[in-house]
Amino acid sequence: MARLLFEAVSKHFDQAVAVEDLNLEVEDGELLVLLGPSGCGKTTALRMVAGLEDATSGSIWIGDRIVNDVEPKDRDVAMVFQSYALYPHMTVAKNIEFPLRQRGVERPERERMVRETAETLGLSSFLDRRPGQLSGGQRQRVALARAIVRSPQAFLMDEPLSNLDATLRTQTRADIVTLQQRLGTTTLYVTHDQVEAMTMGHRIAVMNAGVLQQVARPQEIYEWPANVFVAGFIGNPGMNLLAGEVSGDGARALRMEAGALAIPEQMPLSPGGRVVAGFRPEAVAIDPDGGGVAASVSIVELLGSEVHVVATVGSSRVVVRQELSQPRPAIGAAIRLRIDERAVHFFDAVTGERIAGPGNAAADGPRW
């Protein structure tokens, strides 16, 4: 196996910047998830590793060699596509076998490797079928088998679960994690789905507009988001964000258009500064005593195990996570929200960078 390394890598399409100055290492044997919205550059980064796109500048390493000028077929990586990319006229066995035939592996060895790989992925009973006779989940497992069979230095996965329904996506997600743990193959996994990222990755690298925002373990990235974008993107739903100004008179508070939020003394915020307060849906509750921040109920979402109350605070939206046993407000009702100030993060309103937050008054928590 081998590490993957982006060293000051940029990719420009004429005047459009797809990836800008990307510095990122995928450690040997690691499953790293490259996460971000559509158009953020994550798939372009993956394609540069595969050799399907040329880097405008910077160096891409696979193992101990720079591969910028190496042909895709000689990079020893295997790619799993969103669209499966199976040959419809070939059987499952022939699809899995194809990369081995291209490499000139002898027939008895090919057949052995196909059988072993098919058994690993539960495909042994489907080897004589064609892709059109398989379900979406089975086709994705065939695509995985074709990547696995030749034991590459790294797997590159481009949103491989996007075409599956919710149940299959959950099952296949678990299958990929189990398989990666068993094989220990370095894996770069691209997705826009933050649930996939949180449940699958050893680490997550968040991108936006071609720029790397933060790299950290899933729990760290959830607890210590580096900036406003990461805070709002990570979590289901994301962090609530309210802008305001730090008061300079008497008790310290964040003055917002719909009320005020007390600021813990240890938070290094300057009077008069414009900041954004961020807090998770579990850190806010409806105050039956009428204290806190004024809000209006927009939507009440019943999700089976919990309820999300979506409220409007001034011009912003706040999501409150409730237990099923708690009373639910009516849509349009005027309510007051009590925010746990101990769980609030503060971000610079201009740069978006995190200033301070729970567990560490200054922004010195794990970020990279």
Question: Quick summary of this structure?
Answer:
The protein has 368 residues and is α+β, with helices and mostly antiparallel strands. It has 8 helices and 21 strands.
Description:
- The protein is built from eight helices and 21 strands.
- The strands form four sheets. A six-stranded mixed sheet has the order 6-7-8-3-9-10, with helices on both faces. Strands 13-12-11-14-20-21 form a six-stranded antiparallel sheet. A five-stranded antiparallel sheet has the order 15-19-16-17-18, with no helix packed on it.
- The chain has two domains: 4-223, Rossmann fold (3-Layer(aba) Sandwich), CATH 3.40.50; 237-356, OB fold (Dihydrolipoamide Acetyltransferase, E2P) (Beta Barrel).
- The protein is 23% helix and 34% strand.
- It is an alpha+beta fold.
- Residues 361-368 have low confidence and may be disordered.
- It is elongated, with a radius of gyration of 24 Å.
- The protein has helices at residues 42-50, 92-102, 107-120, 136-148, 166-183, 194-200, 218-223, 228-233; strands at 4-13, 16-26, 31-35, 57-62, 65-66, 77-80, 154-158, 186-191, 203-208, 211-216, 240-246, 253-256, 259-262, 274-279, 284-286, 293-302, 306-313, 316-323, 334-339, 345-348, 354-356.
- The two termini are 24 Å apart.
Major β-sheet strand ordering: 6-7-8-3-9-10
Q: From the coordinates shown, what is the CATH architecture of the largest domain?
A: 3-Layer(aba) Sandwich
CATH hierarchy class name of the largest domain: Alpha Beta
For the secondary structure, the number of strands is: 21
Within CATH, the superfamily of the largest domain carries the name: P-loop containing nucleotide triphosphate hydrolases
Our Rg estimate from Cα atoms comes to: 24 Å
CATH topology of the largest domain: Rossmann fold
How far is it from the N-terminal to the C-terminal residue, by CA?
24 Å
Percent of residues in beta strands?
A: 25-35%
**Which spans have pLDDT < 50 for at least 5 consecutive residues?**
361-368
Classify the helix fraction into a percent range.
10-25%
Mean pLDDT comes to: 90
| Strand and helix order | EEEHEEEHHHEHEHEEHHEEEEEEEEEEE
The helix count comes to 8
